[in-house]
Sequence to fold (306 residues):
Amino acid sequence: MKKFSRPSGAMIVAAIALFVSLGGVAGAQVSQLLNGKNLINGSVTHSKLADHSVASNNLSATLQQSLTKGVSQDIAGSRHSGGQGPRGDQGPQGDRGDQGPKGDQGPQGPKGDQGDRGPAGPAGRDGANSPYVYTFKNISGPDTTNCPNATAAEGFQLTPNGPVWAQDTYDVTYTVTPQADGSFVIFAAFNGTWTANSNLTTDPATCNPSSTIAGESGKLVGTETFTVAADTGFDPYASTASVHGSDATSLTDSLVSALFTPGPNSGDPVASANMKDYYFAYAKPDGSAGMVQGEALNPVVQGDLS
Fold:
């Protein structure tokens, strides 16, 4: 094999000088030929740039201003969100919306706690003058007349209380009312029927001969009013189970005896009872009126026709 001879030192120095001179000329040509105007837009992409190879001062003023406002756009065109900016002014209030549909009724809530007790009301009216009512039903008894010359031959039944011309059946209600002076008023209301003696030949109202009502029946209504002395004792809740009577007079006396007790001055309450007035009306068998009797301040046997 042919061997090359080792170059001399002068040859080496001359070669280096030649290389350097050629490289300087080429670099100068490249710097004059390549600049930003020679690059086509989009020809240098993000992937062809090394990280941190482009500083902010290498960017245009417009791009730098965009970056400081919170939005930047890289060469590849991707968009990035910047930091939150300051809060803007509140906008105007919008119009009121339409009313929505009525919702379904909710379930009933639990029962609430009992409230506090209210204040006491005003005092009621004094009950001292309140009336007390006592009623007796289906009472039967004789009805008398005060015809002065009535005889058995005329169909009357003669009794110590007077000539009886009929038998009555009635209900009676007594109302006892205490008075401001301490006395008592007894008001009796009668409602029932009468049946005349079958052999009656005299009208008990006129005391004149008549046989038009013999054995007939009709309706009756009547009232009696009594007063009882102030110093008698009164027990409105006394038992009236034993009250009885063969006629209206004895029935009233029995009620007074049950409710009242003798006073220091009045004595027996029955004896002190004073009839103020009475009134009875009898309907004839044909339904017409006419048999009426009534007297005031006349303590006669009730039921008398006059």
Notes: Residues 127-296 form one domain. The CA atoms of residues 170 and 275 lie 20 Å apart. The longest helix spans residues 9-33. The first strand starts at residue 71 and ends at 73.
